[in-house]
Every structure is written in structure tokens, then in C-alpha cells.
Fold each of these.
Amino acid sequence: MSNVAENSGTHPAALSEAEIVERIYDAVIEQRLRPGAKLSESALCDAFGVGRMRIRRALLLLASRDIVELRSNRGAYISTPSREQAREVFEARRAIEPNICRLAVQRATAKHIAHLETHLKDERQAQDLGDRRQAIRLSGRFHVKLAEIAVNHVMERMVKELVTRTSLIIGMFGAPGTANCHEDEHTLLLQAFKQKHEEEAAQIMVTHLDHIEAQIDLTSDYRESVDLVEIFNN
Amino acid sequence: MSNVAENSGTHPAALSEAEIVERIYDAVIEQRLRPGAKLSESALCDAFGVGRMRIRRALLLLASRDIVELRSNRGAYISTPSREQAREVFEARRAIEPNICRLAVQRATAKHIAHLETHLKDERQAQDLGDRRQAIRLSGRFHVKLAEIAVNHVMERMVKELVTRTSLIIGMFGAPGTANCHEDEHTLLLQAFKQKHEEEAAQIMVTHLDHIEAQIDLTSDYRESVDLVEIFNN
DNA sequence: GTTAACAAAATTGTCAACAATAAATTCATC
DNA sequence: GATGAATTTATTGTTGACAATTTTGTTAAC
């Protein structure tokens, strides 16, 4: 009984659609849900133990964030981003995240710094232990945490969406073992935070994002045969 | 029979939730819907001629963008942004829109420039004619069009959301007559576009956003007494 | 053996009735 | 006459059944 208050006597404490969305976000980030995966309503109902309506609302929210694609009368599928969309996502990240860095450096207290330090330690540990899922999730969370420190909920939501979509992009175009982030660059960022160097932090972030994008630019198409039509029709 | 294809023979061509969302966005931007306004489901059903389910989905999408606030068992209300949220919105705009400017300048064709020129002419005309709604809508659309020229759908969505929320912020904290934008600054921007000066365009945008924010910072609380509880409860 | 039409199954989309919660009105009491 | 409790009304939240569409599987014809 660590995670959720399961059905252990009293009410199962039905998950809200926001929580379901969050859970699917996580699954996508950890690449347990890959591009093209079908999300059937009944399966999700069983998985989360909620009614169909709740699921449909969650899927609508995910679709409005381009994490899920809703095909009329055919169901919901995890999005399969195109190269064009990948470009757009990285452009957006380069526009937003350096600025988040600047704000975060301004507003980071000693407590925040210590928190980031712990986070990085966990990241390294997961990496060393070969716990790929945990490593991926933590490296994604790092970017979101910067937005938290910047105290900007709008941007936090945006980063969450962009980080999740990046995971899909890597799933589509990255080599199978590709990590989402180089954790040493996160370490560099933390150093800039400690010294309160706004511009340096922003610059490191740009480089960091460039590296992630380069990783997927070079290696071509590693996606599985999900969209057979698109693959064989040209 | 100017506005909607009313039930005049064949199918009324039921609006999708995306279209309903768009219509409410527009109404908010034009300040026909003001902060705190109640959006009752039955009223919306009548207004758009669709079933309750469609409306509920549209409201959920609007709530996920912080345009609407869903109070449990009490209904949907147009959001009443706080000063804190206003700060976050402007921070986000300053982070994103200058970068959109840079990309848009890079990618603007002669056609795009001509299109912006026409748009600005319409803006000025609406201003001169005293057509406030049209003026507000067009000045908001201008910012979205830059994202269109930059060819980035993610950022376009973000700007659309942020522009709409800005209208709410002005409705809350701006003096009654306050315009959303100084259209002369839009003109300045267009000049930078013509000369393909990326950095200058970006800089003008920053100044432009600063001006809009300054307008709401100085003038304090002009909001109507919608949330009586909040006003008298402390 | 292959293709086309047809039938069956499964899944999604929609609607309408019902339950639950909050607001408004009425009534009784102080 | 004013305050507080109880009832009524209205609005939202949820569930279930039904309709529409797509997909799968089968059969028949070429």
C-alpha cells in the first residue's frame, strides 16, 4: 500500500481524469507506451478501474496535447510524431526552456539547490544500476522541476507536454538504447545554478537541447512497423 | 441568418467541440464573455444547438487551458485570473513570442508580408471606426498569425491560449477602455519584418509585451463585483 | 487459388434517464 | 421582524442502454 489507496475495504478512491492523464504521461515518458500503441477504452477502464466516461475525457485531454491521436470511430492511439512535428517540439523547447532557466536561477533558494542535488544523485544512481525506466523518468522530471522552481504553472504545463512528446520522438527516430538526456549536462546546469549564472545556465540548456535533437537527427527511422500503409505506400 | 447555419432545411452541421472551443475563445478575446461569467450547460446547448455531452467536453478543454474554471457541482465559469497568474502569463509570453518573431522573420515570404500589411490596415480601420470588438480581435489575431508564419503549431496553440488569457487579465485589472495592443507597435514589427531584422523584431515584441503588462500593472482592480465572497471574506 | 461480397463481432459515439449536490424558497421559531 | 432549519427547485455528475461505424471472418463466385 505505497502508491495508491487501492480497493482495500472502503471506497477505491476513483481516479480523476487528471490523475489518469498523469499516469499515461508517465507511461509515455518511460516508453512503456510507444508511438502507435492502441488505447482501447475498455482496456483502460479495466486498468484504472473507472467508468468509460472518465476514460474518454482523459483521452480528449491527451489528444488536445498531441500525446494521443483520436481517430473517429477507430479509437485512441499514442501519437506517432512526424519529423516536422519533432522540429516544432524542439523549436518550442529552445524558445521556452532557456528562459525557464533564467527565471529558475533568479528564484532558486538554497533548499531548491539541495533538492536538485538529491535529484541528480538519484538520476546517476538509476543510470548506474541500469534502471532505464527510472533514469528516463528522472531526467524528464528534471526539466519540469526547473519550471517548478521558476514558479510558473503555465510554463510548467508546457514543459511537461514537450518533454513527453520528446519521449515519443525519441521512440520514433532515436536508436533503441538512446537516453533522453545526458545527465552530465544536468550536472553542468546545477553548477551554473549554484553560481547564480543566469546566462550560462540558459546557454547550457540550449546546448543540452541541441544534443538531444542531434541524437535523433542523425539516426534515421527506428520506429516499429506500426503505420504499415505509410511505410509501404511510397 | 448571418452568423450560424441555423436549422434551415438540411442538417445543421453539428459543431465539433473544437469549433465550440474556438467560438468561446473568440468571445473571451472580444470581451463579450467577461471573467466570472457563468457558462451553464443548458444555455450553451441552446446557443450552439448541440447535446450536453459535446458541451461538457468543450468545457473540459477550456478548463485544461485555464480559460474556464470548473467548480464541482456548481458549473463552469470564465476564469478570473489572479495577479500571480497574470504575471505567469506575461512571463510566458515574453519567453515565447520574441522567439516566434525570430522564426517568423526568417520564414516570412513576400506573400506573408503582404498579408500582414492587409491585416494591419484592417486593424487600423476597426480602430478608426470605433469597432472595439473587431479591433480587439484583430490585434489578438496578429500575434497568432506570427506563429502561423513561423510554421509552428505547438507555439501557435500556446500563443492562442496566452492571448486569450491576456484578454481576461485586461478584463480583470485593466481600465474599462483599455485596448489589448498598441497597433502602432504592430506597425513597427512589420517594418522589422520587411527589413528581415530578426533581433529588432524580437526586441520590439518584448517592448510591446512590456507595454501591455504595464497597462494592467498601474491601474488597479477594475473588476466587477462578481466574486462577492472573495471581496468580503478577508 | 484469389477476389469480392456478405455477415458477424467488436468498438466507438450518442442519447436519455437517474442520482447527487448545491442554491433558493418557504416556514417555523425566537 | 430577523434568524435558522427544512423543503423545494434547479443544475450538474454518472450510469447504462442503444445506434453507428469499422473491422474481422466467412462464404461463394470466378
Amino acid sequence: MTTAKPLRADARRNRDALLTKARELFDGGCFNLRFDDFAKLAGVGIGTLYRHFPTREALAEAVYHEEIVAMCARAQELQATLPADEALAAFLRGFVTHLDTHRGLAQTLSTLTATRSEALTEGGQALGEAVAGLLNAAAEAGAIRNDVGAGAVMMALHGICAAYDQPECLTDADGVITLVLDGLRRR
Amino acid sequence: MTTAKPLRADARRNRDALLTKARELFDGGCFNLRFDDFAKLAGVGIGTLYRHFPTREALAEAVYHEEIVAMCARAQELQATLPADEALAAFLRGFVTHLDTHRGLAQTLSTLTATRSEALTEGGQALGEAVAGLLNAAAEAGAIRNDVGAGAVMMALHGICAAYDQPECLTDADGVITLVLDGLRRR
DNA sequence: CCAAAATATGGAGACAGTTTCCGTTTGTCA
DNA sequence: TGACAAACGGAAACTGTCTCCATATTTTGG
């Protein structure tokens, strides 16, 4: 999935420039900038922009994808260095923190990707698997119940992402995580 | 908020036709139908459509608003007829059920309203207050903890709404509700 | 019941953002 | 270094959105 296409040097350069600029603008909260202006801002022609990212959503997806990959890596890392239940808690809390430091990005991505796409579902799945890994490990260690799946936890996270524009959200986000962790604890 | 404008007979008729058609189409999953085609479908001119609902989002909001009003009424009713903790549980479970029977609508509304608006926030607040009412009653009755606010529960619900397009969602949605209810229980 | 006033209608056309297309430029490989 | 392939840029065509106003409908008051 990562290979299969040896991109020409300038093409890669442009693609990266677009992606970088996109992340920057998205993080700043610009989600409906004119598409051709965006090309200008990134220093490439409109045609080039379109060749790399046929739609506004494709661009968002690419950024989103990078984000997911980083998240999954983090899950892996935590799982390898902490006890199962701590890894799970750390991941979930870290998720909220990350979101909080990239509010703009989160908000923009959730807006821009509202029209569900294949790539998006796929990304969600990848993240879901990472969460499932954390949950399974904790369940096997006897630290949490095993009758509620990773999908449920993903939904809760999704809720946090989706709501990330209200003022008091950090408190509420923490509340959700608390509810999820407490709800998961074997009683 | 409900009064203040005695609408002319034909105006009301057209408005209702638009709203009804919108609900029907949204429920069927059509969220990016051409706006002028939509007008034709509802049997009115484009100008009329625009006069009543200046944007696509305004239309979505109107439908969303009706939905919220119904939800709030339900909360009120449950609260009046059941013990606090049962009312809360019934409301949350009912929420999922309702969503499940109107998948298309839920999905469309969440897509269409991704660009947050004032009216939307307002609607969310109304629903949030209804949930807060249920929570407070249950907390006072000593059935649940009181250190997690309604906002957190709202976020979880939001997550359920937002994720409502995956195949296995009912199970996961139930999982979320279970986690929330168990997480809320005083330990 | 009718005329005047008020309100609403519809859709042609102006407009803005999107997307295609192709002549030119840049990179690659032998 | 030359020839070929890949990528570039942006003018122009296209597509959906939204405005505007002459026409039609409803309401009001005499």
C-alpha cells in the first residue's frame, strides 16, 4: 500500500508541498478556501493540485491518513512499553490531548470528511484495530470486561472528535474517557 | 420562539411541502441533490425554496430542529413517568433505537450539518438540557455519580450519531450506551 | 363582494467556484 | 547528450448557486 508507485522527483516535491500547506491551513481552521487560491498558496498550478488531489476531500483524506498512521504507531508503542490497562488508558487520554493541541485540524477534518468515503472508513478501521489490540490485551489480563467491543470505544472517540468546537470540550472529553474507562472496568 | 410571524397561507403550504420533501429525501440518504432540482421535486420554484431556506444547511437545520423538539419532549415524558435511573436508561436506549429506524436521516443530517451553525449549537443545547435534567434527577436519587456532566454524555451520543453508517453499528451503539450507563453508576 | 395593499411566487440569467484539456516544461534513462 | 515520458500551469468551458423582479395570490377594509 505504501509502495507500488515510484513518483518522479518534482511530482513528489509538489505533492509534499501541497500536503504540508494543507495541514497548515487546516490546522488554522481554513476549510473552505477557494481551491485555486489554495493551489496558488502552495505555489503550484491548479492543474497540478487537481492531478494530485482530485477533490477537496481527497486532500483532507491524505492529511487524515497521516494522522491515523501516527495514532496507530502510538498505540503500538504504548502497548509494547506499558501494562495492558495502563496502555489503554494512556492511549485514550493521549488521544484527547492530541486533539486539544490540534483543535483546528480536528475540526476541519471532521467537517471536510463528513461525506464518508472509502479511504476514511479504511483509516477508521486501522485505528479501530489498534484500539482493539489495546482492549484485547487488557481483557486478557483480566483488567476489563470483554462483552463490549472496540467499535463502541471508537464511537465514543468519534463523538469526542465530532464535538470538538464547543468551548468546554476538554472537560467533557475527559468525562467521556472517564465514563468509558470506568464502564469498561470489570465489576 | 414559535410564534411572532403569522405566515401567509400559501407560504406556509409551500414551506411545509419543502420540509416534508426534505425529510423524505434526507431519510432516503440524498444529501447532495442539486438545489434547484430539489425545488422542482417539491413542486415549487427555486426562488421560493431560497426564500424559505437560504442555504442547504438551513433546510437541514429545520428538519434537525423538529427532530430535537421531539427528543426533548420524549425526555420530559419519560422523566415524568419513570424513576430517575430508569428514565435515563430508557432515553438513551430509545435514542439508539430511533436512530436505527431513521438511519438515512441521521446520516444525512450529520453530513449536512457538519459545518457548525448557531441554530445547530442551540438545538444541541436544548437536547443537552434535557439530558442534564435526566442526569440530575438520577444523581439526586443517588443512582449515579455526579462528577461527570451531561456534556460528556452528549459527546458520546454525538459519536453514535456521527458513526451511523457502518454496518455493525447497532451493536456498537448499544455498547456505548452500556459503557456510559455502567460508567455512570455509583460504585 | 370587490378593490387596493400586502405578500409570495417562479424562473431566467448573472455569477462564482470547479474541473478539464493541452501546449510547454522538467526530469529520467541509456 | 538526446529522446522519451512524466508532470506542469493556467485559460477556458462547465456546473451548480443565488439574485432579482414582473407576475400571481392572499388578505384586508370599506
Amino acid sequence: MIKKSKKYTLKKIAEKLNISVTTVSFVLNGQAKEKKISDEMIAKVLAYVKEIDYQPNQLAKSLRTGKSKIIVFMVEDISNQFFASIARIIEDLAYKKGYKVIFCSNENNDEKARDLINIFKHRQIDGYIIIPSPGIENDIRSLIEEGIPVVLFDRYFPSLDTNYVVIDNEHASYQGTKHLIENGYKKIGFITIDTQQNQMVNRMRGYQIAVEEKDLNSNILRIAFHENGQDQKKLKIKKFLEANDLDAILFSTNYLTQSGLEVLHESFPELLGKLGILTFDDHEFFKIHTPSISAISQPKKEIAVNLMNVMLQLLKKPAKDSEPKNITLNTEFIPRVSSQHR
Amino acid sequence: MIKKSKKYTLKKIAEKLNISVTTVSFVLNGQAKEKKISDEMIAKVLAYVKEIDYQPNQLAKSLRTGKSKIIVFMVEDISNQFFASIARIIEDLAYKKGYKVIFCSNENNDEKARDLINIFKHRQIDGYIIIPSPGIENDIRSLIEEGIPVVLFDRYFPSLDTNYVVIDNEHASYQGTKHLIENGYKKIGFITIDTQQNQMVNRMRGYQIAVEEKDLNSNILRIAFHENGQDQKKLKIKKFLEANDLDAILFSTNYLTQSGLEVLHESFPELLGKLGILTFDDHEFFKIHTPSISAISQPKKEIAVNLMNVMLQLLKKPAKDSEPKNITLNTEFIPRVSSQHR
DNA sequence: CTAATATACTAAAACGATTTAGTTATACAA
DNA sequence: TTGTATAACTAAATCGTTTTAGTATATTAG
């Protein structure tokens, strides 16, 4: 049971033991030896502190030290399975090291992202793990210049020398497209988000290189991230499918795959058996979808672990000391043969 | 662009304007009129504060006022689609009111939940929105006794008079089971989590009442929440399906449905077309699954809005003032007819 | 025996806000 | 003229820590 903690403070402890606040503080912060506190004194303090289960006020601590033991984890949308899974792992890793995590969603929107950063700047946040929206390069830059630990992921700014953890998008996409081609598909469509952000640009490039290599046509549909509602997105996909007689599709992200599948089920059920479907970001349900859907799976665990490793290192040393860490991880290609294709 | 904020403080502002810190503070907190600050003074302060884009240090503020403007949102597992979606809505609502949200996962584990609460107790968290693990009734009670705003959801403790937001589990389950029966299914299985927590108990009761009403047998599989890994769960389901010649299944929660579907695909593909499948918690993918899966859908938006409403009210008034709010929302039954069933 | 050093501890400033209990100057009443 | 209100502002305490710059006593060196 949680104790009805009577709000102990250093001062009360000091009074009770008839010693100074300073001594208590030194003992509690492991500086006792260094500050020449006697062994009996150390024992006395530790015993009492244990007895009353004293927990220091973190706010006061933060105010004084400037460290909050909180890190921010900012993604496009925390309700997206992919981000939520990584968040869950980050949460665990952080808690083990005594950090709390504040999650937030920027909707890939610069203003929202800026607002959020601004809010957090006045809360002494210790570090930021961020999926940057397209136009906040300068904001990220100024965070870094102020010496605040920042790690980007999923995408980064080539012109900004930062810490980041990403995957090899181009290769993943190239490899996936090639796999489709090798399985006999010739008219392969690529459905992606209309953006200049490098993760998407690279995914597209991988696709393009693969199709051009085999002298195939590229068929690309770009959809705005903030397309007017889900229905507009689906309408665009529908028209794209009607206009192009495709035999396979590569979706550049999981939420597009979801919309795409819905369109197929609603409007082109006859295509479902024939179409080769490949998606970025695996999901449990792709495995049991009919037909099952091949996926380019991002290593969530590895991403999270790397993010936290870099972050923890930054939190130890002033950021400027070391070269920014640029980590590129490999994806896993998960081919799935649908029962219909057998 | 975010300004390279030169860490202004009340003191610096006061010095610059040649007035006292107190005056600045009064003006900024809207107490100017009440404290008889002259209009020119108010204008002067506001102008300067605007010019330098002053943002008060929230830690100092919190230390002094005891309020952190942070609320905790604790669920079983933040990577679960259902919880993540609610978290996303909560996030937005909270930010609009100037609150940040710290998400965390207790894994339905008392010790983890207690640890988390303990950590947060020393951070002056303003309020808690919690899915309680089975044995933390007393911990919740002591939080409440200390006057800290707490709202439970998804489940509650009948013997504890708290604020909570839940759904009418029994009715939802009853109605869903009845629907299966009316569609001709006679051997209906119920796969649930082995727990005494009331959300699950009620879901089971709804099922039982419905089958007994029609003199049908009940076939129940209980799986431990912390079953040894995903594979053990699936194995139990597999054995259950082998042992019982069912024609329909009701899953009491989304992650069980997922495991169940995997088992069906892997081991009993021939059943997929015949079996009636109904699940608690809707998911985009249930719509496009083959066969499509009927769902008892919880009103995520409504749940989130109600949670925040209650929380915001509690944050305004000392908790003890008013009677705890007990809110029970209705689910939506979404019947889906699979193409095979046509 | 004195000076220097080490040991064991502490007073008080600081972090940056809020808030209580003033102070001064002016206005008005008796 | 004195006393009381009121307007307009402020000094200083406070929240609970950390940390700097001590102090007092004991020990050692010369």
C-alpha cells in the first residue's frame, strides 16, 4: 500500500535529527564520503530516511538543478500503432533510468510542433525525441544550439547535423519493389504521402530505381498528409486504381495501406485476390488479412533502444562534446504468400 | 521560429522596469485590478512582457503553488490501439486547457501501478486518469483521501466511491450474444481474461444471461492476462476450439480477438467462413477482415471527453466538495455480414 | 608550542515564482 | 488639525532542494 506520506522535507529531517539540512542533502546525494561526513552520521541519516520512506520533492530539485528527469517523445500521431509501439518501449527504457516520458502528437504540422516545443521549453525538459514536421529545421537547430539533447527519428534534415535514428528507406523500398517484380508483377503502383521529407522521398526513390532498372513504368499517387478527411484520401486512391490497370501496389506507410485496403474491399473486391500488395510498416493484421500482405517491417525495438541509448548518452555529456550519432537501421522484408496466390 | 529565449525572470523584468517583482507578478496573474495597480503600470508591464515574449518558469510556479499542470493517464498498455486512441484525444483536450499529459502503462500489474503512482506523487501531479489493476483499490483510496483528483475508467471498484467512466459491459455483451443467437448460432464460445475485475465479470455475465435465456450451453475460456507469452495464449485458444465444436465466438477484448484470429488462420482456416465472430472493441481492420467481424464498439471520443470533463471539474474544486461522478456510456453494436455469410 | 592541515559539520544564498503583510502618499471627513 | 480610507506599490517570506563558502575542532608537522 502507498503510505499516506506526511510530506517530509529535508528541513524536517534535519530538525528531527538535530543536524543541518546540508548534511542530510550530502548524505542523500551520495556525496557523504567526499564531504567528509562521518560514518555514524551517514548511518543515522540513512536509517531515518528509510524509516519514514522519504522521497525528495522533484520540483524543488528540478528548480535548483535545472534538470527535470522528463523527456519528450513527439510523433505525428501517438494513436498510430507504429508510433504507439515504439512509445511503449521508450516508456519502459526511460522509467528504468529514472526518466518520465511525455508523449505528444504534432500531426506533422509545423505550428503544432513549434507550439509544443515552446510549451516544453519552460518546463526544463531534459531531452527531446522528435519526428520532425517538414518546416521546423530551424527550431530544432536552435534547440541544439542551446545545448538541449535532441534525437530525431523516422526522418531528419540532411542540412542539419543532428543525432538521428532512421531506417534505410531507399534500400527497403528498392528491395520490396524488386521482390514484386521478380514475382511477375509488371504494373506496380506506388501510393505515398505528398511531401519532400526524406523518409518518403527515399521510399519513392527506391521504388523508382527498381522499376526503371527493369524498364517498367512508374505509377505514383501522392496524397496530402492533411487530405480533407479519410474519405477524400480513399476517393483519390479509388480514382488512381480506376485510372491505372495495376497488378501490384506498394504503400509507403501503414495508414495508407489501411485506406487502400478499405478501398479495395469496398470498390474492387475482385482485385483483392490478384493484386500484389506490399506495405511499409508491418502490423499483426496484415498477417491474417486475406490475402495476406507482404510487409517491409521496421525494427521497432531496435529503433527504440537506439533512440534511448543516444538520448541517455546526450543526457550525460553536454551535447556539443561529441559528434552527432547518425544511425541507420535495416528493415526486415516479410514476404507473405496469400492462399489465393498459392 | 522559436526565439533564443534569454531566460527572463520576474526579477529581471522588475529591474528593467524599475518596479517590484510583486507588481509584475500581480499584473501577469490578472490580479492587477484587485490589487489596485494603476492602468499605466499594467500597460507598461504587459507591453514589455509581450516584447520579450516572457514565459514564466513552470517549475518555480509549481513549487510555489503546488500545481504542476500535468495529469497522468495510466492504462494497461499504451501500445494497444484502443488505449492509444483515447490517449490521443485526451492529449488534445488537455493541451487546450493548458495541461500536459504523461502516459504510462501498468500492464495490469499492481506493483507496477503502485510504483508509478509513487513516482508521480513526488512530482505534484495535478490529477490521475487510471485504468486500475486489480489490487490497487487501497492505493487509489489513499490518493483520493489526500484530495488528489482521480478518475478511473474501463473498470472500477464497486466498494470504492470514486469518479469513473465506464461502458455498460453487461448489456453490450448480452445484446451481442443475443444477436448471435438470433442469427442461428447455437454453440457460442466466450473467450475472456481470467480476472475478477468488473469489466470482464460483467461482459461474461451478459454472455451467460443471454445463452441461459435460450437454454444454450455456455462455453467459456479464461486466459491469464500475463499468460506466458503470446504463444501460450494461442495454444489455449487452439485447444479450446478443438475441444468444443463451436459455431460462434465472442471475444471479450481486442487483443484476444487478434490472437484468436491468428489461431483460426493458422490452424482452422476452414472454420473462418462458418464461424460467427464477435469482438469487444472495434478496429479498422475488423471491417476488412475476411470474413468481416462484428464488433461491440466503445465510444472512444465520448469516453475521452467525459474523462476530461470530470477531471477538469475536479481540478477546479477540491475533490471532496461534490459527489463522485459515475458515468456509464453505451456501446455501439456494429453487425457485419461477411461475404461468405451472404 | 605554533602553524598548517584535515575532519566534520553548517549558515545562508540560490533557483524563480507567489503571496502576506506591509509602506507611503493622497483624499476626505470630523 | 487629526484621523481614517483608499490607492498604488513593495519587502520579504515561502515552496524544498543544492551548493558555496564557511566555522570549529582535532591532528599533524616543524
